[in-house]
Amino acid sequence: MGNPFFTLRLRSAMNTPDEWVCRIVYRDGSGRVTERVVSPIRFEGPRVLALCLGAAEPRGFRLSSIEDVQLVRAETVLCPDEKVKMLERRFHAPLGF
Which of 25, 33, 78, 87 would bridge 68 by S-S if both were Cys, CB 3.0 to 4.6 A apart? Predict the structure, then answer.
């Protein structure tokens, strides 16, 4: 599955998305290690679905491939205006960032 402490941190951010996002260290299928800032949406079996704030796109992450999770105050993370506008168009609603 994955580290239970990481799961708790992801769930904390899910439950309070206006307050917290997560900085994750993730090893992809080809072995590359990347760091992402994400807003977790829900667990889907062995994965977590999250909005990757850098890409402004939803992404799925295997819990077993997450090497670290840190909670980050959401107010400290900036999402560029053009990405917010794109997301608002995509979801047909103002996001209020």
Answer: 25
Q: Which residues are CB-contacts of 33 (< 8 A; sequence separation ≥ 6)?
A: 25, 26, 27, 67
- 25-63 in b/e burial notation, b at 16+ Cβ within 10 A? ebeeeeeeeeebbbbbbeeeeebbebbbbeebeebebbb
Supply the pLDDT for residue 2: 75
Q: Using an 8 Å Cβ cutoff, are 39 and 53 in contact?
A: yes
Q: How far apart are the C-alpha atoms of 89 and 74, rounded to whole Å? A: 22
Residues 41-83 pLDDT 10s = 999 999 999 999 888 889 999 999 999 999 999 888 866 555 6
DSSP H helical segments within 1-97, as ranges?
Answer: 4-15, 81-91
